Amino acid sequence: MRALDIMTTPPVSVHPSTSVRDAIALLSERGYAGLPVVDDDGRVVGIFTEADALNYGMDASGELRVDAMMSTPVEVANAETHVTELARRMLADGLRCMPVVTDGVLVGVISRHDLLRPLVRSDDTIATHVRALLDDYSGKRDGWHVTVSGGAVTISGAFADEAERAVAAALARTVLGVTTVETNFATSGVTS
């Protein structure tokens, strides 16, 4: 699963010339942890976070622009970045949100909330998506049984060989909300 699969889009952002008060209003009204600050070409030049807003509130001296209070440099992710890498970077750096860019232009925002959402996806929904992928792969030959419990997927049935078993497991891992995948040969009892 990649950033583009779970990011919030379209992203809400502010311009460097936006007033700090307007940015704080956006943060509080929408419940965001941070707002990407983008230039006229849509490129991320900073981020205005709750911490920046609190610093402004403690030192409110006149009407400041966002570019005077924003955090720089800002860490961004590519739309193709895998969610495990996003989670690792966000935890390691204490980030609550991260702008997502394609060719340097803002296309979305990832928050910790976005990373949590796949963890609570319905098992029935996950099973339906896994079955659809397996049906597409196998030409609907109906040889596998899929069960899901707490995001843990088990695929049972007759696989042509080890390679087919590995492909079925890899396909299941691409489904949003899957935590682990186990495959069982119906006849040989091999488990992975």
TrEMBL record:
Q: What is this protein called?
A: HPP family protein
Q: Which SUPFAM superfamilies does the UniProt entry name for this protein? A: CBS-domain pair
PROSITE patterns, A to Z:
BON (PS50914), CBS (PS51371)
Q: Which PANTHER family match?
A: CBS DOMAIN-CONTAINING PROTEIN (PTHR43080:SF2), CBS DOMAIN-CONTAINING PROTEIN CBSX3, MITOCHONDRIAL (PTHR43080)
Q: Gene3D superfamilies, per this entry?
A: 3.30.1340.30, CBS-domain
The entry's keywords: CBS domain
Provide the CBS domain boundaries: 7-64, 70-125
Task: Please report the stretch or stretches of sequence annotated as the BON domain.
Answer: 122-189
- A Pfam family found in this protein is BON
This chain's source organism reads Haloechinothrix salitolerans
Top-rank taxon of the source lineage equals: Bacteria
